[in-house]
Each structure stands twice: as structure tokens, then as C-alpha cells.
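Chapter review. Work through the record for Hydrogenase nickel incorporation protein before attempting the end-of-chapter questions.
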Amino acid sequence: MHELGLARSIAGIAEENAKGRRLKEVRVAIGPQACVERGALTFCWDLVTESTAISGVSLGFIDADNDTFVVREIEFMEEA
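C-alpha cells for Hydrogenase nickel incorporation protein:
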């Protein structure tokens, strides 16, 4: 299940870009030929982020072309 490694990489990218700010959602663009199972990736995301600074952050998906797999957007919580 390579989705576990992908989830770890996405979490690392998200934490690095957060720079102390609270995250709301991370969106990943996935193409039909990327060989990534969205359900498995979501499951692994929940495991990887549990008990971390980004616990509870949603993982969203954007449809892409071909074999695309990239972290496309990181949404931050609004500051009060």
C-alpha cells in the first residue's frame, strides 16, 4: 500500500508550509492514471496525522489529468 508513504509525504509538506499556522484542508490533485486509491489515501492520512499538529485537517481531492499527483492547495484557518 504505497498510499501510506504518500500520506506521510503530504503531511510533511503540509506541516512544513504551515509554519505554525493552523490548517483547515490540504487538497491533492490526482489523475486517473496515478494509481492512487483515494479511499486508501484518506484512511492513511487519518492514521498519519493522528496525534500530530495537523490532526483533524481534511484531505480533499481535485481531479487532474493523466498520471498527475501533486499537493495543489493548502487552506489555512482564518485568524481571529
